[in-house]
Automatic annotation (TrEMBL), chain A:
Lineage: Eukaryota, Metazoa, Chordata, Craniata, Vertebrata
Record's GO cellular component terms: mitochondrion
Native source species: Oncorhynchus mykiss (Rainbow trout)
Record-given protein name: Protein FMC1 homolog
PANTHER family in the record: PROTEIN FMC1 HOMOLOG (PTHR31716:SF1)
Function, in words: Plays a role in the assembly/stability of the mitochondrial membrane ATP synthase (F(1)F(0) ATP synthase or Complex V).
Record-stated family: Belongs to the FMC1 family.
Cited InterPro entries: FMC1_homologue (IPR037667)
A Pfam family annotated for this UniProt entry: Complex1_LYR_2
Automatic annotation (TrEMBL), chain B:
Organism the protein comes from: Oncorhynchus mykiss (Rainbow trout)
Gene from which the chain derives: LOC110499186
Keyword Mitochondrion: yes
Function: Plays a role in the assembly of the F1 component of the mitochondrial ATP synthase (ATPase).
Membrane topology term: Peripheral membrane protein
Family recorded in the similarity comment: Belongs to the ATP12 family.
A Pfam family assignment: ATP12
The protein's name: ATP synthase mitochondrial F1 complex assembly factor 2
Chief place of localization: mitochondrion
Keyword list, A-Z: Chaperone, Membrane, Mitochondrion, Mitochondrion inner membrane, Transit peptide
Gene3D superfamilies tied to this protein: ATP12 ATPase (1.10.3580.10), ATP12-like (3.30.2180.10)
């Protein structure tokens, strides 16, 4: 099932993701240089069917998938995920009450 | 009774249960047991500016957050066996904005598991656990109705099943009964031998992928680069996608699930790829 994109598409996709993460100075990031390097290295091969090239292509496709899906997951998580419960003190404070304090401990606590 | 309620409340306190604290992630399940330590925290403030990697001893790579070296949860120094993995992990740490979201750092989690081995598992235990999924493999469980789903399953799952049977010279077969297919011992032995050829790190990743996809066949197809991550995830969630097509999509459940599964599987696949590869560059001279 060779429905992998072309190397150019993958490379552009990954670099776009990196730019989305880092912002304006994305060109100095580690990942940027490494990715470009890898793509350049694997470009030239004398053989018609190069297994290493196929593997590298699959790996870069996986990496692109990782970056995109993490970004999308975080976006959805931030939008929909519950924020958790408040502290009991805070909750009591909302309705204008305070938690009882007992300096000697409650007897049944350790 | 009010006392008990307050006590219960204090226990829950900060520990809201995110979707990750459920049997999908082995790491998180273990951590949630020790509620005293830091482990229930899923986010904390970002405490560094720069991330970089450096060469450590023995050809391993270390991650530096500002000036400090990254450590695993078990206290060991974090070391990655090759540059690609180190850069992937460093990029994860780099991605974080003001809050660190540990649930999104899958490569880091995998590396930590491989380095710490917190449940002290041996290779054999992992292989046995991984092969257990074969008996209840997603691909092998077929429905009998509705007919469109049956057709979908046959069209999508049969090719992958045929591929793996050819590739590994085994017999798996599919079944519609509640017990699932009968996997012959020869098949188990072949797979066991194949899995034994992976090193510990790759096996950690492979077992993770199998657990996420709930299928040995799909995991192998992915690791052997026969299908892409998106395809593997789609095939794993085939029935769910079918139902979504019929009843509609619920963004806060289906999409969240989909993206989370994709990111975990992609991380697992990459982890295996980085842990089991070795690359050399051979320069050939052009003959004029």
């Amino acid at each position: 099932m060779a429905s992998l994109s072309s190397p150019l598409r993958l490379c552009r996709g990954i670099l776009r993701e990196i730019r989305a993460i880092k912002g304006p100075e994305y060109k100095q990031s580690l990942a940027y240089n490494y990715v470009l390097d890898q793509f350049r290295k694997n470009q030239i091969t004398g053989e018609r069917y190069c297994r290493a090239q196929e593997e590298a292509l699959h790996a870069s496709h996986s990496y692109l998938c990782l970056l995109t899906s993490t970004r999308q997951h975080i976006a959805l998580y931030d939008m929909y995920h519950g924020k958790g419960q408040r502290d009991t003190e805070e909750m009591a404070g909302i309705v204008g009450l305070r938690l009882p304090t007992q300096p000697g401990g409650k007897g049944w606590e350790k | 009774m009010l006392r008990n309620l307050v006590r219960f409340h204090n226990c829950l306190g900060h520990a809201f249960s995110p979707p990750t604290v459920c049997p999908r992630g082995q790491m998180f399940k273990l951590l949630s047991v020790n509620s005293k330590s830091y482990s229930i925290i899923t986010e904390r403030k970002k405490f560094y500016e720069d991330v970089s990697i450096s060469h450590g001893e023995g050809g391993m790579f270390e991650i530096n957050l500002d000036r400090r070296k990254l450590k695993t949860p078990g206290g060991k120094l974090f070391t990655a066996p090759n540059e690609a993995l180190a850069i992937a992990v460093a990029n994860e740490w780099d991605t974080q904005k003001d809050m660190l979201k540990f649930y999104s750092m899958h490569m880091t989690t995998l590396c930590n598991t491989a380095l710490d081995n917190p449940t002290f598992r041996s290779k054999d235990q992992m292989i046995t656990a991984a092969l257990k999924y074969l008996e209840t493999d997603t691909i092998c469980y077929r429905v009998e109705e509705p007919p469109s789903l049956v057709e979908l399953q046959n069209n999508e799952w049969d090719p992958v099943l045929n591929w793996i049977e050819d590739r590994y010279n085994v017999v798996i077969g599919s079944s519609t009964s509640i017990l699932g297919p009968e996997i012959p011992q020869a098949t188990m032995d072949t797979f066991r031998q194949h899995l034994g050829s992976y090193n510990f790190w790759s096996l950690t990743g492979l077992e993770y992928v199998i657990t996420q996809l709930k299928s040995v066949v799909l995991a192998f197809a992915l690791i052997d680069k026969h299908i892409t991550v998106e395809q593997a995830v789609l095939l794993s969630r085939l029935e769910e996608e079918f139902q979504i097509g019929h009843w509609g999509n619920v963004e806060w459940a289906h999409d969240v699930d989909l993206y989370e599964l994709r990111s975990r599987t992609a991380a697992g696949a990459l982890f295996v790829h980085f842990s089991s590869e070795s690359s050399t560059v051979k320069r050939k001279l052009m003959q004029d």
